[in-house]
Amino acid sequence: MIFNKKKRSNTTTTLEVCELDPDICVLSLEECLKFVTKAQNIIHFTSPHRKQKELRLDLDSYQLIFKGGGSISKQDVIQCERIKEVRYATECFGLLKLEDVQLELCITIKFKIPNAFLWGTFSFEAFDEEAAQRWVHTLRLLQRSNLHKRYPGREKEIFINRVPYFLQVAADNREMEVKDLKVFLCNMCNYNIDTVDLNDIMEELNIDESSPISLDHLRSIYDKLAYNPKVVSEYFDSKSIEENGSDKSRSFPLFSEDTVTSSEMAEFLELHDSTLSPPNIINKYGCNEEMTREQFLEFLYSDENSIFERSTKVEDLMDSPMCHYWVASSHNTFLTGNQLKSKSSVEAYVQALLSGCKCIELDLWERQGTIMILHGYTLTSMVEADEVLAVIDMYAFRVSPYPVILSVENHLGNSMQEKFAKMLKERFKDKLLTAPLNDGGVLPSPVMLMNKIIIKDKKRMKDELEPSHYNQDIVKNGEIYFETALHANDWTKRMVFMTTDFLYYSYFSQDADDYRTLANFSTESENTPRITDLHHSEPWFWGTVDPQAATHYVSEYIVNMKKQNGNDVKLTGDFAIRPSSQFPGENVLIFLDCNNSPKKIKIKSRSEEGHPRYSIEEYVDAPTFDTLYALVKHYQRIPFSVKGVPLILRNSIEEPRNFEKEIWFHYNASLEDSEKRLACVKRDGAFLVREQPDNNFRLVFRCSGAIKQCRLRQDGRLWIIGKSHFDGLTKLVEYYKKYPLYCTRNNQQIKLTEPVKKIPVDDVNISTYLTTSYITCEDIKSQKPQEAYIATEDYKGKSDGEMTFLEGAILKNVERDHIHLGWCIGDYGPRKQRYIPYKLLQPYEWEDEENKDNPLGNMCAGMIQLKNSIPRIHKVSDDPCKPHFISIRCEGKEEYRLGFDHYETMEAWFFALSNAKKPKQRSLKGSKLKQNPVYANLVIYAQSKPAPNELTDDHIQHISYKEMHSVDENKLLTYTKKPTYLNVIKCTNKCMLRVYPKGTRTASSNFDPLTSWNYGCQLVALNYQTPDKPMQLNFGKFSLCNGGCGYVRKPEDMISGQFDPSKDTFPNSIALFITVISGRMLSSEEGNLPKVKISLEGLDCDPGEEVTRPSKSSLAPFWNEKLGLLSLNPDMAMIRFEVTDSNDFGDDKFIGHCTFPVKMLKTGFRSVPLFDGYGDRIPMASLLVYTEKEKLKPDDPERELHRIRREILQLNEYLSELTAPTQYDIDRLSAIENKYFTLKDKIKLDDIANRYQYASDGNNTLDDGNRTLSRGKTYVKISMRRKKPPLPPRAVSSYT
User: What is the pTM of this model?
Assistant: First the structure.
């Protein structure tokens, strides 16, 4: 369709619908491709400019290429598989503001940007109407045809063919060279490969360094890096299986030769997947009725061999009442970021609806006579309600025809409500539900409500109080500069919210350009070398060294070599290169002649056609090279003449390690020694660099009371941290003294502030540990009365002073013990202040009551009490940094300063602060609103009703099926902890219940939706703009099930009222055994040490979380680890594969995930496709696993073990509530714990080892925390790790 945009009035926008020309619509994909593969003239719109360009589709690289008068750059390419939508005449980039624009020729392409929420936009004008329609028709056909996956290996070929465009070799009219390979791997694959490793690969593949790199060379390098050869040798090569003694129960010896025949493949598929046809697989992936190893691996990692089968059709009849379905729901749909100051966009509604969301939110406010959508009492931007309704009208039923619910937060007056009702009727017409259906006293089904839009709002026909968003009235808010006495002259831009009692301020403004965090690691100083300058990573290249120091370095080198090898040692040809101190841009070659005497030759550089060329000065006709790296490589093979004597460059003279003289450098220091030394300096940013054997370096520093360490990599003379490269370790340290190295979860910026000296660790005593020399305001804020941690493993105390606890236990009042390193002291149940191994704990997110009514929520850095405060305006000359500022001094408190750029803004804030300290008569929270009857008549089946404090039987009996409750996550948890917790399920079987995030989630983080789903809540509203774990669970539940229609039917026992989420006995319990074998194209920006975590997500009784060890390989890691998981209720559980990249900060970098229901899991050798945080497929990234499923019998000892475990957790929670537990209760707890550990040891040694298969040791080091040696094999632990707090007190009523 063509959408012509026209203006009707100043506030109303309409989109006319025109049909495509039928003569063009009937064209096939092949006919359209002939047209678009030829370069077409277009006008590219980049607000506010228009540029003439050429646009064409390149099928080999499967991307749109557009250029105009310049080279093809990365920004001039759109990868076709990332195209999300193709539109006509959109308002993007303000097309209507441009003159001489023919709207019928204008096209907008929306495409996915990696790791970004909003899609990118490319708008252009075609040269005629037929060309515009052909472009739209072709691009839409490409979206549906999956042309990039038309045949096996197609994705690989596309990837290889894109390399020349990425490196711009096509635009520069040159051939690929060796130097381009490192750029290709680092940028396209996020793979930081050392020069030595790259040279080894090229030597193994017989690639000559001096020859151009062809596409065939790239294919060979891809196969080398993308597939780990151990996969075939461990599992499919008959000879290797016999030689290595691999586990034959999980191996399939296909390869006696280098190929797989059709009969062998048929035998494999008969056992592996009978739904696949052997001839089809052979013909598709191989040729001549056989497959090579690479073709077989291509099949194993392909989506055709996926571990689950994605549902493409609606499987349910959809004829049950609406309350019998979970519905994909969004919270504050219009926002693109945090809840305080992010932008609002209609595109957020488009993306939510196209992802299958069926409940979206509209916050309605009146602004200057226009109905706007915005997040009230915040700094977020706004969008017109009319534009949002137009988008909903267009996209509501694109994914499926089932009803869409508009969750309205209504802040409009009476007349504006009537205006909004009129807008709804005019826009949606017969799509809007305006009257009840013949429903028979129950909610209609999705089939009955097909293509209908339902309004959810309160239905008030009399004056009622409209509650405000916060418990305090917000008087004023904005972004202003902030300074405290602890941070003098450090003006930072912060978000400030002022209420009648307090002034709340954030850590810093989210878009401040002054801060750079570890998350993007784009922090490179001016002296940071570019990755394309390969000589910077070579040991023979020195940094900026003056001639006198260079002479000294060479003399030291000669002396040291003579000491090691004798005075007769020949050092002829040993060399180094340093930048010239007299001629900028030129270099000096220093080498030793046949007499071991240092000589130097100037290396000239000049520009030819815009490219640098290097040559040796001594020769008139000396060959020239485009890099120093190429020059050195040449003269390491070909001699040059020195006074008639031929000489070849040989060994590198490395620059001395001057950083060893720095006080922060600690040679051969262990982590324990570093912790002791850092414990002596109670200041964030205290740091040291320690070196371990084999040139392993770690940067260790203090951060928020904890110690972090980061891995430093040395590549020649380059020092690499994350993706930043520095010309020396000293420069790296000096850089991060000026700029933040690390950003905490509370947005605190950590710089390297104080170097730690090499003091003897034996001199560190108790008093030194307890000395506190400096405490920041952030440290004080983080100190809560109860520091809670969750246990990650079972632990049985070895003495009366040690704590005994189980996985998932919540331990409170935990403090690190600085005397006994590695231990902490805390409380659990009736046991107080006992020792706990710190490595078995993880921080637990405890509800912060202080932030409950805080408008900044978890982003709040502090607050100022305005009672008795004294604001004062300062003159212009007082502070030249901020000429206009207000100082606030509170009684007995420090002074705060608020800085402003404009005097008028300062006066407005001063007036508000001056009035705040005056006593006022507090008004009622909220304002009186009466609902307009015209609008009220549109609220039919989703009538919001205030939620009671408890869902009693009487309340459920009297609530109407047309009504519903909206509660935040905390209130739902309150419901589930009461003895009447089952009434939540009863209520959701009668009407709908919506759960939304608590108000303190100002960063738009999401809560765990599992509890809400487990209790039958239909509408679990999540922030779709945040790619966190809850949204990934939402993706697995809705996008992969029931055709992705946005509705998923609840289990029958939940609908019938027989379901109890606190039960731990179910008839269909299973044990899962998953061998994580290898991965493909797991590219990451950090660390290059990927690991896989597999977890079960479902009921509280469904524990399970196991992690592999980090692998040393990044693109094709090999783990070969077998993990065990126990699912007591697989009908409600989802399994989640998460791949992260380990770093030494302890903050693993997310690479990808795959989340889907357990009941969809397939067994055998399977590919696990990986998705990004927003649910988009990561090209070619996947895992190879081997899965096994076994149904548990009713008398399995694991069931009894799990029952006892839950009993211990419940009893501990019950006893912790008692003021003085009796000795009888404590003895009973100890007896149950002893019974648990005895049974656990018995199962480990006798039962599971005999009944379940073993995993191959794989020549890996065993981790005693996860596995146990038994008969020379690796015992597979079935994880019972709880990821949630213990069951609420209602589950332990038997003890009272």
Answer: 0.73
